[in-house]
Amino acid sequence: MEAVSYIILIGSTLLIVSVLTSYLALRIGAPLLLIFLGIGLLAGEDGIGRIAFNDAGSAFLIGSMALAVILFESGFDTKLASYKAAAWPAMTLATVGVAVTTGVVGVAAHYLMNLGWWEALLIGAACSSTDAAAVFFLLRVGGITLRDRVRSTLEIESGSNDPVAIMLTILLVEAATHGLASPAAIVGELALAFALGGVMGLAGGWLLVAFINKANFETGLNPVVTLTFALFIFAATNVLGGSGYLAVYAAGLYAGNVKLRGALELRRFHSGLTWLSQIVMFVMLGLLATPREFAGMLLPALGVALVLIVVARPLAVWMCLLPFRFSVRETSFIAWVGLRGAVSLLLALVPVLGGLENGQLIFNTAFVVVVVSLLVQGWTIGSMARALELIVPPRRGPVERVELELPGNADQELVAYTVHGKSPAARGQRMPRWAKPSLVIRAGAVVPLHKAKPLQPGDHVYLFTPQHRLPLIDKLYGGSRALDQSDREFYGDLVLSPDATVEQIAEMYGLPLSLSNARLTLSDLLRNEFGGSCELGDRVRMGGVELIVRDMDEDTITSVGLALEPVRVTSRRRPLYQRVTVIGGRLRGWWNEHAFRRWKEREKLRARQLAAPPPVAEPPREERVESRNEA
C-alpha cells in the first residue's frame, strides 16, 4: 500500500512540475514538449531524481493509449474545409513524404552509424513522422497566423502521417527479424491495414455519433463515452489486423464534422486530455532514456539529425509539393516545420520490443534526433515565418462560444465579443436585428441595452446567433477589416431594385419559388417576412441565394442586396453523409422548380394565344369544289 502511494506521489509531482514549468516555456517561447522531456531526464536514473525506469513494454502500452487519444482529438478538431484546401498535398506528404524521409535518413544512418540496412531504415521510419501538437502550440505562443492552405497542409500531414510511419516501422521490424516478405504480400498487408482501418474508423465514428445523439446522456457523461469509444475502436481494429491509429483518426474526423450533442464541451475535454497525454508520454520517455549511453553514439546521431533537418525533410517536401503550385516561401516553411516528437520516440521502442540487437541504439538515436529537432526547429518557427513573410493579420472573432442544446433543430450559439476599437460597432454603425447584443458589460458592470448605445471599445457584448451568421458578426464587432458599402459578404454580390418582383428574380437566376409569392416585390417579400418592419442587414433565404436589406431611408427599403454564395462559418461541421430528410428537401426543391417552370411555360403560351389574331375560317369542302368547277 505504501509503495502504491509513493508511485502516485511521484507521478503526480512530475505532472505538477511539468505544468508549472510550462509557464516558463510560455514566457521564453521554448518548445513546451522539450520542457516535459527534460523533466523526465532530470527525474531519471541519470538525473537528480534517480528514478530507475526501464520497462519498455509498459512505456509502449501507455504511449499507445496516449497516442490513440491524441489522434482522435487531431481528427475531431480537423474540419473538412481543411481537406478541401489541402487534402492532396498533405496526403502526398503523409505517404510519399514519409517514404522519402525514411529512405534518406536510413542511408545516412547506415553509413554514419555502421548499421545494417533494416536497422538503419528503422531509424528513418521512426523519425519520419511529424508532431502536430508541437507545431501548432509554438505557432499559438508566437502569435503566428498562417495562410489557410499552409496551415491546413501542416495540420492534415501531422495528423495523417502517424499511421503510415507506424505501419512502415512494423513492416521493417518484421523484415529485420523474419526476413523480407514478397512485394505482393507487403502490398496486400498494407492495403488490408489501411482499408480495414478506414472502414472501422468511419463505422465507429458513425456509431459514436448515433449513440450520443440518441441516448441523451447527462452532459458530463459524453466525454467518457467518446474516450471509451476511441480506445475501443483503436484496439478492435488492431485485433482484426487493421491500422488502429488510422481508425481512431478517421473516427474523430467523422465525429468532428457531423452534428454531435455537446460538441464544444467535447472539444474542450479532448484538448485537455491531449495535453495530459503529451505530458505523460514525454515525461515517461524521458525517464526511459539513459543519457550515459549517449556518449559513444552522440556524434553520429547528431549527423543523422542534421541530415533529417537539412536534406531529408526539404527533399521530401519539395518533391511532394512540386505539382501543387506552392510558392517557394511556402514550400520552404513547410520543409522547416517538421518537428519530431513523442510519436518518433514511441516508434523507436518497437525495435526494442521486437528483440533487435541494436534496438536500444535505435531508441537512443531517435531520442537525440527529437531533442535536436525541438531545439533547432522548434525555437525558430516564429522567426522563420516572419523572415519568409508568411504571417497574415489574425482574424478577430468571438472570444467565447457556447453551444446551446435547444429543443428541436434550433441551432443557436451564445457568443461573446470584446468590441474592437476600429469595428463598425464602435464607430456607431447601425446594427442589424440579428447582430444586436443581448447583454453588454462595461468596466465590469452590466449596462442596460438602452443605455449602452453607442458601444465603446472594450465593451463585452453577448448575443445569440446561428452559426452561419458568425462571419458577418465578426466584421461588426471584431473589426477584422473595415466594413463599407462595398463589402460583398455583408451586403451581397449584386444590387437589386426593391420594386423588382420575386418572379423576375427567380426567372433570371433559375431559383425555386412558391407561386403565392410570384407577384410580390422584393420589398414586400422582405416586409412580409419581418412583420412589416425591416432593418438594415435583414436576410431572407431564397433557394441557393439570400436577399438582403442593403439600404433604407427611414422605413423604406431603397436597395436590396443579392448574395449569390451566402457566407458560412469556416468551422461549421459538414456532414459526411446526407440524411433522408435532407435528400427529401432537395427533391422537393427540384420538384417546385420544375413545377414553376411548367407554370411559366403555360403562362407564356396563354399570353401568345391572347395576342395572336383570330384564325380565318376556311369554307366547307363542297364550296371549294364548286368554286374550282366554275373556274
Write the layout of secondary structure elements.
Elements: H1 2-28, H2 32-43, H3 56-76, H4 80-113, H5 117-126, H6 132-141, H7 148-178, H8 183-215, H9 222-239, H10 244-255, H11 263-288, H12 298-321, H13 328-336, H14 342-353, H15 359-376, H16 381-387, E1 400-403, E2 413-418, E3 439-442, E4 445-447, E5 460-465, H17 470-478, H18 488-491, E6 494-496, H19 502-509, H20 522-529, E7 539-542, E8 545-553, E9 556-563, H21 580-611, H22 621-630
Antiparallel strand pairs: 1-2, 2-5, 3-4, 3-5, 6-9, 7-8, 8-9
Helix pairs in contact: 1-2, 2-11, 3-9, 3-10, 3-11, 3-14, 4-5, 4-7, 4-12, 5-7, 5-14, 5-15, 7-10, 7-14, 8-9, 8-10, 9-10, 9-11, 12-13, 12-15, 14-15
Q: What would you say this structure looks like, in words?
A:
The chain has 631 residues and is α+β, with helices and mostly antiparallel strands. The protein folds into three domains: 386 residues, Na+/H+ antiporter like fold (Up-down Bundle), CATH 1.20.1530; 84 residues, Alpha-Beta Plaits (2-Layer Sandwich); 74 residues, 2-Layer Sandwich (Uridine Diphospho-n-acetylenolpyruvylglucosamine Reductase, domain 3). It has 22 helices and nine strands. A five-stranded antiparallel β-sheet has the order 1-2-5-3-4. A four-stranded antiparallel β-sheet has the order 6-9-8-7. β8 and β9 form a beta hairpin. α3 runs antiparallel to α11, α7 packs antiparallel against α10 and α9 packs antiparallel against α10. The longest helix is centred in the N-terminal third of the chain and has 34 residues. About 2% of the residues have low confidence. Keywords: Antiport, Cell membrane, Ion transport, Membrane, Transmembrane, Transmembrane helix, Transport.
